[in-house]
Amino acid sequence: MGSIGEEIKQMEFWSEYSKLLINVLYTASWLNGLQNGIFKEHKLTPQQYNSLRILRGQYPEAASVNLLKDRMIDKMSNVSRIIDKLKAKDLVTRRPCKHDRRQVDVTITDKGLKLLETIDEQMVEWEKQLHSLSPKEATQVNELLDKWRS
Amino acid sequence: MGSIGEEIKQMEFWSEYSKLLINVLYTASWLNGLQNGIFKEHKLTPQQYNSLRILRGQYPEAASVNLLKDRMIDKMSNVSRIIDKLKAKDLVTRRPCKHDRRQVDVTITDKGLKLLETIDEQMVEWEKQLHSLSPKEATQVNELLDKWRS
DNA sequence: CGACATTAAGTGTAAAAACATAGATTTGCG
DNA sequence: CGCAAATCTATGTTTTTACACTTAATGTCG
What we know:
Two copies of one chain form a homodimer.
Chain A: H1 3-10, H2 16-41, H3 46-58, H4 65-71, H5 79-88, E1 92-96, E2 104-108, H6 110-127, H7 135-149
Chain A binds a DNA duplex through α5.
């Protein structure tokens, strides 16, 4: 636990909402740090991984750059260049969309699917570290975060 | 609500922990996006803001670069350069520490304190948008996130 | 004291993010 | 149809991050 974690608990005079704000940002950063260990092994950035996951969700259909952008965790990403990197590693293909020549069809390759499978295995192991909440509690946080954003 | 938010709810076959992982990352990105609006007005990055907040917490004491690093939400930040930027705007001072000449004493200036006060006001207004949870629910999420990280 | 490990802060560099904008295509409407 | 607005992707540029390394100072232990 970092010192911020301690600090969050001590901010008695702050509103619960301020605490929640910082707590969520801090927890996300903590998760990112942990995940990066796995990503780095495969020379992927979190965003590249995120893109591949979305593309797998569409497979065997293609996804447009815009669809990717909409579904990315980080909306500000420059998807074109992320695709460039993935294409350079043969993890995706990119070809013009037939029905709308402005669009581009991005599809995950077998190599990309295989890489995700490998990472899946590691993720399953890694996620076991995160079971300090009961499934019920995890569900509860999920529901409350959804409600918060609504 | 972005499409990921919808998607999270639909991932019925995933473990609650996977959902929670993505949900926290997504919520943090959502919050960052909202906050950036305020920061940009004042030409601050989230990390510069974070540093200023920590320095205000220490005021009128100084903070070492290491103390800042430990308390930053994002641990990977290069604090030296963040301080450079803040110093260039006269929001902090930097002077050698007397007791340990390796260390540097970083202190928030009056200008920095004043800037934070301005931002505080905006934040209070902004945070009102985040009251779709009851205080009790906010407390609950805070407790559960703390437990999750432990 | 003196060699060696440790700690603190800063820097060089390549990669990635942020932001604005361009170029090409499609859409909608008079 | 024909033109303006909207949409989709890509690119140029600046700033920030990630990571390895350097320099300086302190701590440790013989």
